[in-house]
Amino acid sequence: MTVRRSAVQLFRTVTHAVRSVIDPAGLVRSTAPAVVADPEGTYTASEMPGVETIEAAAAEYVQAGDARRAADRLKRRSSKVLDRLPAGLHGRWLVERVESSRTTVDLDSIRATYKRLGLGEVPMRQCAPSLRLTDLAPVELPEPVAPVAAEHGALLVAA
Predict the structure, then answer these.
(1) What does the H/E/C string look like for 14-59?
(2) Measuring CA to CA, how many Å separate 149 from each of 32, 95, 157?
(3) Which residues is 90 bridged to in the sheet?
(4) Do 49 and 43 form a contact (C-beta atoms < 8 A)?
(5) What is the DSSP letter of 90?
(6) How far is 110 from 122, CA to CA, in rounded Å?
(7) Would the CA dihedral through 45, 51, 57, 63 be positive or negative?
């Protein structure tokens, strides 16, 4: 370990120790994300599909998410071997590396430009809210349900 790396680690350790004494709550992130308002274009009461349609769509959505995660795990496992292969023909597979057509914002360059021009921090905005589905079938709701639902900002729809 180099002296520079040791100094950096020591600095981080001291910084975390000081923060834990001065502002311990600042070191802990909330595990419960904030609930956001419904986006524009949600169903009105007269447009609401039937409960069976909603349950089928939710089940498909959850199943697709599970399949995506399984595919991602399989891809990561395969990439451990494939990423290390040199370009060329390997059996019946041609391995090559090509430039991506996708582009992304270079935040490091933008930060450097903002700093150079004295513009302060780079403005950031929140990402779009995530859709989260929770299957309540195995859960028995307490009686009365309405006050509990209202406490959590839930909307109850009669079946």
Answers:
(1) HHHHHHHHHCHHHHCCCCCCCCCCCCCCCCCCCCCCCHHHHHHHHH
(2) 17, 55, 11
(3) 93
(4) yes
(5) E
(6) 7
(7) positive
Q: Hey, what are 85's tokens?
A: 């292969």
**Backbone dihedral region for residue 107 (phi beyond 0: left; psi -120 to 50: alpha; all else: beta):** alpha
- What would the pLDDT profile of 57-76 be if each residue is shown by its tens digit? 999 999 999 999 999 999 99
Residue 159: predicted pLDDT: 44
Q: How many CA atoms lie within 13 A of 158 on its CB side?
A: 1
Sequence length of the chain is 159
Identity of the residue numbered 124: M
Would you say 95 and 87 are in contact if contact means Cβ atoms under 8 Å apart?
yes
Torsion angles phi and psi, residue 6, rounded to 5: -65, -40
Q: How far is CA 121 from CA 30, 63, 136, in A?
A: 24, 41, 43
Other C-beta atoms closer than 10 Å to the C-beta of 148 total: 13
Q: What is the pTM of this model?
A: 0.54
Specify whether the CB–CB gap between 85 and 95 falls below 8 A: yes
C-alpha to C-alpha distance for 27 and 11, rounded to whole angstroms? 16
SS3 89: strand
Give the type of residue at 117. Answer: L
